[in-house]
Amino acid sequence: MTRPSAALIDLRALRHNARVMRSMHGGRQIAVLKSNAYGHGAVACARALGGTSDGFGVAFLEEARQLRAAGIEGPLLVLEGAFDARELVEAVAGGIALVVHHEDQLRMIERTPLPRVPASFWLKIDSGMHRAGFAPDAAAAAYRRLQATGQAHSITLMTHFARADEPDCPATREQLAVFEAATQGLTGPRSLCNSAGILAWPAARRDWGRPGIALYGADPLGSSASPLAPVMTLRSHVFSQRLLQPGEALGYGGAFRATEPTRVGLVALGYADGYPRAAATGTPVAVDGQRTRLIGRVSMDMLTVDLTPLPHAGIGSPVELWGPTIPVNEVASRAGTIAYELLCNVKRVPLQYLD
Ligand SMILES: *Cc1c(COP(=O)(O)O)cnc(C)c1O
């Protein structure tokens, strides 16, 4: 038997989520596929989303190149923009849209003769996240300079929310107002919403939505009544078992000590596959479709689960680390992180697609 560990990627669920986000937001949709589609495989996801999205967003040019090399033709947007003039020229020549978010990038476009093909730029305004983007009072001047280069076929006005996943926090409403004021009188499509923006802030929906995490079915609001379906199932098998006697310790650091006879299942998946080592005893896992718990410390290639409450489970029983039974959000919160990090850390296990 080969190692029974894999990440199953349900492309039907991906398409479902893309349709949900698109109809909720209205307008057009950039499906964000950066970081290998949050660990789900960018090329396969791009192919699956061809009919339900209007373009794909990636973080940097190399990610766009990989999509183009795999034959993905539709509109691509590079969310960090170009790092140098060579990238700028290559992107424009390849019909790849670029975010422009700081002075150096703007100056690069002013100084570099670009290929004579329609170039699309997304001008990013810092409406309050204070990470990237032109200051609100510099937005109109940046827009006019971009226009004055004569090299921008279209300019989309965008911003990014810092706290859209907090429906009761006023920060997003303030960002929205700052963006509106900064872009007043400037023509061009608008794009404000990431996944949480689309889900929680109807007033921020505009011409283009930019969902990422929601496409993969991990609701950023942590809502239990989410309309989204999980896309990835991280799974393995129990491949060995043993009985711990009261007082016996399990695994590295003796992090778990049995207080009663405890049947332990050994699972062929560890932190080298992207399962978080920070997940401690008590983190939920499913064995044979039933919830039980992780016990002991996660090691590089293996982890251990409690089979005591599941008398019929044993060697060969399927294990779900996250997926439809165990929400990835729940594992993330047990590990002190967010679903984004867990999903894009998945590695070493093969990705298997369900279409
Ligand atoms: C990553 C990213 C998104 C997608 O964010 P999610 O929270 O995953 O929906 C949207 N816009 C920009 C600029 C991003 O960098």
From TrEMBL:
Q: In which pathway does it act?
A: Amino-acid biosynthesis; D-alanine biosynthesis; D-alanine from L-alanine: step 1/1
Q: Name one GO molecular function term.
A: alanine racemase activity
Q: What is its EC number?
A: 5.1.1.1
What region holds the Alanine racemase C-terminal domain?
Answer: 231-354
Q: Which InterPro entries match?
A: Ala_racemase (IPR000821), Ala_racemase/Decarboxylase_C (IPR009006), Ala_racemase_C (IPR011079), Ala_racemase_N (IPR001608), Ala_racemase_pyridoxalP-BS (IPR020622), PLP-binding_barrel (IPR029066)
* Superkingdom to which the source organism belongs: Bacteria
- Show the coiled coil region(s): none
Q: Where is the active site?
A: K34 (proton acceptor), Y252 (proton acceptor)
Question: In which residues is substrate bound?
Answer: R131, M300
Tell me if Heme is a UniProt keyword of this record: no
Is the keyword Ion transport in the record?
Answer: no
Q: Which PROSITE patterns match?
A: ALANINE_RACEMASE
Specify the signal sequence span: none
The record lists the catalysed reaction(s) as:
L-alanine = D-alanine
Modification N6-(pyridoxal phosphate)lysine, positions: K34
One Pfam family cited in the UniProt record for this chain: Ala_racemase_C
Cofactor list? pyridoxal 5'-phosphate
Please explain the role this protein plays, according to its UniProt record: Catalyzes the interconversion of L-alanine and D-alanine. May also act on other amino acids.
What PANTHER family does this protein's entry cite? ALANINE RACEMASE (PTHR30511), ALANINE RACEMASE, CATABOLIC-RELATED (PTHR30511:SF0)
Question: Family per UniProt?
Answer: Belongs to the alanine racemase family.
What is this protein identified as? Alanine racemase
Q: Which organism is it from?
A: Roseateles subflavus
